[in-house]
Amino acid sequence: MVAIPSSPPASREVVRTAIVPVMLSGADYRRAHDAHHIAAGLWDQAVDWVHAEWKAKHNPSKYDIRAFLTSIPREQRTLHAHTTEAIGYDLYEAIKTSRTNRKNGMSVRSPWRKKNYRPLSFSKHFGWRIRPDNKLNLSLGRGRPGIVLALPNVEDPVGAELVSPDLWSEIQLCWDQDNRQFSLHIPYTSRRSVSAGKAITAIDEGIINPMTLATWVDEGTIDVTVINGREARAIKRQRNKATGALQRKMSKTKNGSRKHHRLVAAKKRLKGKARLQLRDFDHQVARKATNHVIAHSTGRLVIGEVRGIEYKTKQKRRIGRRGRQQLSQWSRGTEERYLAEKTGLDIEHLNESGSTKTCPACGARNRPCGRDYRCKVCNFTCHRDAVGAINILQKAIHGSYVPIGPDVVIRVTYLRDEKRWSPDQRNTHRMVQCRKARALSSAKNQASTETSCKPKLVNSSTSSLEPDPLVAVA
Fold first, then answer.
1. Of residues 79 and 198, which shows the higher confidence score?
2. Residues 169, 194, 460, 416: is their CA dihedral positive or negative?
3. Domain boundaries, the chain
4. What is the C-alpha separation between 164 and 153, in angstroms, rounded?
């Protein structure tokens, strides 16, 4: 293996989307609620029209769909003209995506399902504008009152700076069904460090460890980064158990009763909270993987092909019930998308069959036991996921599982779970703070009372991205 000189990371402009929850007044809430239903109705009419055109042997373009929607009388589409046009563009993109997936061998249908709610899109300077009183106005069309809300603060996480509204583009107003609140999706342009080099990084994906990355550093060293994913498994397990308990209680109630409504609301809150936690976790996994990619000046990103592994597992009796549940809740695609956005690289998929069974030192086949791999021929030992990533790396370079040799040093960096407060620690901290507040409020003479309190920090609520010390594995 020839050593590849490292190069400094490059920077490029990327489009990020900030999700900002907003509070609406009663009147604006009703306007937004009705507008979402109207947008869904326009989508349904456009879908029916497209299917009728297909039956007539016509293939409408996105401009034809836009022309059909704008031809609907204004009293039936009480939305901004650009919002109506955006519905047509979204439908055309959905049709285009379905055709691409069918060409790739996937069994999918073109848009056909009826919708009850649709997000509202507001174009810059026309659909949305900032009023003189520093309020954000979302227009619903000429002659109709718009949706007015406080100007949100959008902070770029890269530089921790506020993003000027001049950098915002088309805004979407969306409804979060689980958390029962509206939110603004605000895209803006930001500069980000991306990978620029000629190195190759291979990734082995898994449920326990979402990503394991391997890269050649020089002729005798391979750097491997194992990203632990037990936090996501804990979040999903807690959500599944709590959801199952609520579902059992709901089965004993009558539909439409007060208790049934309360249980449904509790279930939605539970799912919304878990979804936000998993979204944060997926971003952290992608960020840790991006740090490895940029540090090694990667120019080519190869991932083991595991798409479709969850298909027909029950019919073929390949995986048990719990394994099927874990596969169905695996957020592999989301993490890949986040990684591609953060690194600026195109992802290649490579067949990884036998990658975790093949010894990277001598090429012998062994069945790993647990999370460790031990070769019975040459006594090579290493982390199981690191073996898979190294074999994928060798196949990406040579086309097959070529042994790396017995003298190559494998440096494994294991990034553990994020350090967070447990629910008991959080409740204890809240109780202590409440007691301190009551003590200060009931003090007779606060000016004459001088106290020095230096509490001992048990655990940090901030996430630590510092890796463990490197472990050399022969």
1. 79
2. positive
3. 11-192, 195-418+465-473
4. 9
